[in-house]
Amino acid sequence: MIQRVQSIFLLLIAACMIITIFLPNWQEVSGQDAVTTTALKMVHSKAGAEVSSRGIWYIAALAAVATGLALFSLFSFKNRVLQMGLGAINALIMAGVLGLMVYFTREAETIIPNHEGSFQTGTYLPMAAMICNIIANRFIRKDEKLVRSADRMR
Length: 154
Description:
This protein is of the alpha+beta class. Helices cover 64% and strands 16% of the residues. The protein has helices at residues 5-22, 57-74, 80-109, 121-153, and strands spanning 26-30, 33-37, 41-46, 49-55, 118-119.
């Protein structure tokens, strides 16, 4: 049923990953120079004018795939084994999103040397989604054990 506890966590995963696409992941400002990365692109600007831009759309694509898997898992409530498998695959995809974010953050740090940037909200959302994924998988596993124990008693 969709009204189970894990459904809330699966919806939170989808929401976190969709919001990740649109919020900035990392930003570095030094005087008039600024470098900002999102899940779609890395932008270097001077005095408000864009100097260079690089598309990193594959982070957004992976986030969209993770969203789709979470929603598909939400509506696969009759097949809990499939849900657990989708949760494992989704964890790998979200780890890939986080890994690519860190990689491009390290790459963007070299644009303005001798100055530190800061991680923004978009970086923390995949981490929150991974925690929600762990909790959702725990509740799915709990439901599967409950159903199997009820089958044994018949």
